[in-house]
Fold these 2 entries.
Entry 1:
Amino acid sequence: MPEKSLIVINPNSSDAVTAGIDAAVTPLRGWGIPIRCVTLAEGALAIESQRDADLAIAPMLALAERLTGDALGFVIACFGDPGLHALRDQTQLPAVGIQEAAVATALTMGQRFGVISILPASIPRHLRSFAAMGVLDRLAGDRALGLGVADLENVERTVAKMTEVGAELRDRDGADVLIMGCAGMAGYRDRIEAALGCPVIEPCQAAAVLALARIALRPTNGEYD
């Protein structure tokens, strides 16, 4: 039987994206709680629209149900947090979405946050989530790269475009902290932060930190066992 872990679910079917998420959370493995990153085989190759996100919810919930016996908690590793509230209905274990966690972290690091998104079609679903969270007055802007998830594997082009868009969010929109708005960007945080000279949040890391804290502070009465 596998060791119980924090389960990080990539709701798309890209193993390359899952590998990037796994690398991003590796520094947190020293905290003593195992972290396991898994791919939703039934998911779309990329989640780039509300429709893509919505179609991932049912199979993602089914995967989480199958993994519950191996789980200490869950992270949904897709910006927009598809199925987050349904997962919280389904399990008593900690369940964290990367968008919600990234925004919560950003609010502790700056006054106004900016989001680097992949495509223009992603922005409306982000804004709906920000509105539901009640944080629109702290949002400086949400700007798209014009790159799909698969395009993010081109390192030099992605870093150049993310730096360009991040500078616009910082200089034109007044963001003093930036959020990378796609799990597929997971490997680029250090380079973008160094190029822009302001805090950059990688959302899978932010979500894993919150989930690990919840797990460490879980009740001792067996509620989450």
Entry 2:
Amino acid sequence: MIAAVLVIPAMALVRADPHSSAWWAGVVLNTVIWLVFVAELAAILAVAPHRWRWMREHPLDPLIVLLTPPIMPSSLQAARLLRLLRLLRLVRLAQVVRRLSSDQAVRFAGLIALFTALGGGAAFASAEGRQVSTWDGVWWAVSTMTTVGYGDVYPRTDEGRFIAIVVMIVGIGFVAILTAAIAQRFVAVQVGQQVEDAEEVLEATEEQVLAEIREIGSRLQILEASVQRLARRGG
């Protein structure tokens, strides 16, 4: 997961001027990330009881190792985007989100949206070529996720359009979750105020009833005293 997340800054660094310090840092980071994926695949295959069956059921892991080596030609560098698909493991946490409170769910959705904005922006910039910088890609991703869409940057390639579809879906989902959480908070505040008002009315009603009961008791005492006086006179 950490290596998959580090793909985002690695993609940004390798877009710097060739042979610059930032470019070399990106090359080194890209190599380390690939080696991490190789080590993970080797460890899994070493303990898997049925290696070929496991590879058929998990084709993404070997594809990442085979299609994204650091020595691949520049024309195929976009294949590094496959590494970002490892972030899809976060989707498995959806079952956990169901048991979270609304605030925790919003924070989790915000984390997914952040990864999508950064990763989607870097992937978009890589897919569109040198005419789109990494910062332009992140700007495009944020404006797309918030449904603003200024139109100053837009996808021109099929890869860019595919990334745009994913970014739009995640963005719409996050906005929906955020809107629902805000609405829920307002409803909770309104319901709480109504409950407080009802409690105040109930307390006032109880006090009024108690006052009336005390008044009735006083009248009954007066009536009882009058009856006793009349009884003594009659006797």
